[in-house]
Amino acid sequence: FGALLSSLLLLSHLLPPVYVLHSVTKSSFSLPDPLSAPKVHCWCSSYPNATLCTWPKPPHFPTTHYIATYSERHNQASTKECHLLPPGSSSSEKFWICQLPNLKLLTDYIINITAVHSGRSSSHLTSFMLEDIVKPDPPVDVRVSPTNNRKLLVEWSPPPTWTNLAIFPLKYQIIYQWENKGIRRSVNLGPYENTTVELKALTPGRPYLFQVCARELLGLGKCSDWSMPVKITIPRKRL
């Protein structure tokens, strides 16, 4: 028996410890509602000087405040605080805004947005390179007018927020839509480097919707959202 006891003691030292986990039911312990991490969207509306990150105001935690920092991926010891703008008082202004000024070109950045509420916190960590998130604002002052030979002249102005147009030009795409027997159809044209395009081969008497989007000339990032639509009907008679 003594030899058996010695063997059991030796075996107990060699085996890893065993832990028993006890489940806790909701009735015996109530956890607070989880504080979800903010869903952050970043874009550069004027390359390379205007970068914003936004996230929606949480509806269930109105007193939530945020800590927003960013750093270069290869120099995380040098962390900077983001300039935060809280949502406005109107019902349409439901987003927090983080301004990131003077980012370097061709550099990976890490941004950390931490939501804090009632002693709890939840973070969103993401990385980006400035060139990947370029997205201009939509073109403005879109005008569509018929000419005297049944063509359409489409004109627009660059987004005023794109401040380095001479150094970083834009290119543009046009989309026009119409309905034929209840089916919506569309044609996408471009890219164009000018802000004036003459179109032909459109059907007289048919209403069309025209919109324009802008993108950095070398193709960085994405095209802007489409501009506000302009509706026009091709005259049946020559002007």
Automatic annotation (TrEMBL):
Put simply, this protein is called Epstein-Barr virus induced 3
Give the PROSITE patterns listed for this entry. Answer: FN3, HEMATOPO_REC_L_F3
Fibronectin type-III domain: residues covered: 34-137, 138-237
Superkingdom of the organism of origin: Eukaryota
Please state the span of the N-terminal signal peptide per the UniProt entry.
1-20
GO MF assignments: cytokine receptor activity
Instruction: Write the record's keywords in alphabetical order, separated by commas.
Output: Glycoprotein, Repeat, Signal
Q: Which PANTHER family match?
A: INTERLEUKIN-27 SUBUNIT BETA
- Organismal lineage: Eukaryota, Metazoa, Chordata, Craniata, Vertebrata
Q: Which family does it belong to?
A: Belongs to the type I cytokine receptor family. Type 3 subfamily.
**One GO term of the cellular component aspect?**
membrane
Which SMART domains does this one have?
FN3 (SM00060)
A Pfam family per the record: fn3
